[in-house]
Amino acid sequence: MALNDAGNTKAPAQIDVARYRVKPGARVRLDEWETDTTGDFDGGKKEGKDLLSNLTKQLAKYQEVFYAQGKHRLLIVLQAMDTGGKDGTISHVFKKVNPQGVKVANFKTPTPQELAHDYLWRIHPHVPGNGEMMIFNRSHYEDVLIVRVHGLVPKAVWERRYEQINAFEKMLADEGTTIVKFCLYISKDEQKERLQARLDDPTKHWKFDVNDLAERKRWDAYMDAYEEMLGRTSTSYAPWFIVPGDRKWYRNLVVAQTLVQTLEGLDLHYPEPEQPLDGIVVE
Amino acid sequence: MALNDAGNTKAPAQIDVARYRVKPGARVRLDEWETDTTGDFDGGKKEGKDLLSNLTKQLAKYQEVFYAQGKHRLLIVLQAMDTGGKDGTISHVFKKVNPQGVKVANFKTPTPQELAHDYLWRIHPHVPGNGEMMIFNRSHYEDVLIVRVHGLVPKAVWERRYEQINAFEKMLADEGTTIVKFCLYISKDEQKERLQARLDDPTKHWKFDVNDLAERKRWDAYMDAYEEMLGRTSTSYAPWFIVPGDRKWYRNLVVAQTLVQTLEGLDLHYPEPEQPLDGIVVE
Q: Which ipTM score applies to this complex?
């Protein structure tokens, strides 16, 4: 670990995140993945929140070195069904990180100008540069999810995109970007409860969109699209993690632990000054 | 040909451009390619200029339909050694095209911000959208030319880029972009004359750059880099043409004829009005 000079010691991982990683080429069947598990974590919500507090502190420290070093690039992709917890994950996992150090790109319904170009055209400008951490809240994966489910392009077109996306991410990785992708996975029942909660609470009405109900009717078609996406685009250089999403505190733990381990895998260290600073006096 | 409604008739090609197209996977040896040929064109400079005038008119007509139709995307890549004629080609071949209909992106020395990202990051935002023609004056190919010749990145890095570029262009092509790439090929002697001409003529001094002399010393290394680039990135979906460049009038003819034929291969036609216009009276 090159992080000693950042004053950190690497704590043993308390969440085994490897179990959530999708093996390249896997045939994913989402009904075999649990949405409400807490893995082998031997604590409850209270202990989970304490651990998250530690992990988010660690993440904040690492981010500072990451930024100062200005060498690595980190791309974090978040995908989920509606109410799946993308916004909540961002706010909880990154709450201690300097907001200047991490950016979020939201990819909503494409504009006419975006639709007049290839689907990666609006994505590419937002990939991280040296020392940058970028979170994609939705992403180019919408182009094999909603686009596929709604038949917005012919099958022959979206079918090619798995390979195109792999090539795109491979190029980014070869050129120096670390990529981690999270699929926040909730059950259909959990979505029902969350949508109902938005209806019941006037302070959450702004989050409710009637279109979500129409999308919910296509649940099975979405699961098919997710399964194919996860199996075909989880790679050694850009792995997918299927994060159990029903318990928000555990979901946050899995994402935070995965990111901490990812950063620990990089040679993070503060850069050497370009010239020795010994003896320099500020007068 | 769907161009009848544009009032055009397709003239028989007078320049056989297929001979300049690099076959995918070819082992290119540039010393087997002539720089001063005029192919089987049975005319001189005078006849060549007359023909160019016809071709550029045709190009202008096609461009108008292309724009009105708003369906196709055309990407034209120009690469050449210094003094190779990129600027001259653009001004002569496109001189009759509505400047609103064709855009030029110049890729010069990358900025620090561009260098902090993958090399396609500064390229992708400039690819054409529906109804757009885009000319790349230099391009991502600099990243396997000057970058290779000067060793700006390790061999392992530029070596991967041929495949990455093919994947990038394949994605663009799959998503609806027509790509044509021209390598304007001049002899080393011709470059000497052109550089000297810039020195001799005060109105051309602004085009002279002393760095061009240093680059000229690396001529052989550049030829090696060009040969590998041409052989490895000329594909069915994004072919390279090696254009004989010593005679400017013939070079322009080859580029213009290739573009005219490329556009004739598309189903260009004015779009149908969204509702019948018969009987509409402007009062």
A: 0.89
